[in-house]
């Protein structure tokens, strides 16, 4: 489809802006995202995913699941990928028309802190970013014969990390409790291999968790301002596993204040927080990737 490449770039840019927005600035990237999704270049895919969807029924059923705890409501998404994409696109269109609805929606279904904007940011990480990834794949697949993909459900999960041992050990314990096998690079025998050769020797992993902790500092040349950053090896390995496993099987945990790469919209990520909400987010991502386990035991 002509023009889709530039449209997807605009979509990703809008998502990046939405990720970093605050209460004063979130409305513009919302409208920008909806406008890009409504591009004539995407008319074909939008016509396909819009057939037969009922977002009002989805919202009504979701409202009925709410309990006494904030953020306890749950959406019963369609199992069919086409219908799911249609529902999310329609929600994004409504968010653009009524930004306050987006805030309330995030607060009700993706509550992640005391500030109402935190629910919106959580919604972006858990709903919008995966949608953009899958929407692009669906759009590009139209008119092509789709070959079945056999997912790699290896129980080995690679942990990419920097110098901060606390998050590394916490994630390793979580994965072990989930019945998975955490793979930490420095614990593996070198056998005369370089670091990148050691990574390549463990290609049989099925998932990668990337820990972005404030181990380095950096900034724009000449600005005189340094910001906390993840180590360069962490970013290199992030890119390696995105290419090897696919973006849907790579999850980044980012400590608060750490600068994220500018081209980060294609990666699902969550905040590594002291309250351990990251465990529930990681459990959902593993479940989405096909790892089914007693997540309550793992979270506990």
For the structure shown, list the relevant keywords.
12 helices; Rossmann fold; 11% strand; 300 residues; two-stranded antiparallel sheet; 2 domains
Unreliable segments of 5+ consecutive residues = 144-151
By CATH, the architecture of the largest domain is named: 3-Layer(aba) Sandwich
User: What's the assembly state of these chains?
Assistant: single chain
Q: What is the CA-atom radius of gyration, in angstroms?
A: 20 Å
Strand content: 5-15%
Main sheet properties: 5 strands, parallel
Class of the largest domain, according to the CATH hierarchy? Alpha Beta
Going by CATH, the homologous superfamily of the largest domain would be Response regulator
Main sheet: strand order: 2-1-3-6-7
Give the overall average pLDDT: 82
Overall shape: it is: globular
Number of strands: 7
User: Structural class per helix/strand content?
Assistant: alpha/beta
Head-to-tail CA distance between termini: 47 Å
The level of helicity is 40-55%
Could you walk me through the main structural features you see in this protein, from its secondary elements to its overall organization?
The structure is a single chain. This protein has 300 residues and is α/β, with parallel strands linked by helices. The protein folds into two domains: 4-141, no CATH class; 156-299, Rossmann fold. 49% of the residues lie in helices and 11% in strands. It is built from twelve helices and seven strands. It has helices at 4-19, 27-37, 43-49, 55-63, 81-97, 99-109, 116-141, 165-177, 195-200, 232-245, 277-288, 295-299; strands at 156-160, 181-184, 207-212, 216-218, 227-229, 250-255, 268-272. The protein has a five-stranded parallel sheet, with helices on both faces. Strands 4-5 form a two-stranded antiparallel ribbon. Helix 1 runs antiparallel to helix 7 (116-141), helix 5 (81-97) crosses helix 6 and helix 5 (81-97) packs across helix 7 (116-141). It starts with a helix and ends with a helix. Residues 144-151 have low confidence and may be disordered.
